[in-house]
Write a structure and sequence with these properties.
Length: 147
């Protein structure tokens, strides 16, 4: 049996703010939420399975200087869908690490958008194809490694 990723759990500083971002901007349906031992939490999915848990237990924003999560990547079925997410994120005022859809590497068919959640966690939404001709910000190096 081969392991595959399951859900991802993120510590957040403000559950209401993060829930609004992941549910309302990215469209992840809320599966459940609660409070236990003074910690609030929310479970979000894709309609079929759990994808993300948010735990309000962090006192500070994401710190890319520490060991742990580098970035969280989501995959969309098409580059058009990636662009729809980009539009929704821009309307929300989200800051991007690169301008528009970028390729994962020079000449790659896969690519996406790179941005941060309300706590500064680095996020990616990409598609396996459709980014042909899109710029790669760092040549042959993996774009996702440079934000």
């Amino acid at each position: 049996m081969t392991l595959r990723p399951g859900h991802t759990g993120l510590n957040v500083t403000d559950l209401d703010r993060s829930l609004a971002f992941y549910r309302d901007v990215l469209g992840l349906p809320l599966i459940g939420e609660g409070k236990e031992d003074g910690r609030r939490y929310a479970f979000l999915g894709d309609g079929e399975r759990l994808l993300l848990t948010l735990w309000q237990q962090a006192e500070r924003s994401y710190d890319g200087e520490r060991a742990g999560l580098h970035h969280l990547a989501f995959e969309a079925d098409s580059i058009e869908r990636v662009r729809e997410y980009e539009e929704a994120l821009r309307a929300h005022g989200t800051a991007f690490a690169h301008e528009g859809v970028v390729a994962h590497g020079e000449g790659a068919a896969s690519g996406g958008i790179f941005f941060h959640d309300p706590d500064g966690t680095r996020l990616e939404i990409s598609a396996p194809s459709g980014a042909e001709g899109a710029p790669a910000p760092h040549g042959t190096a993996p774009t996702c490694g440079f934000f």
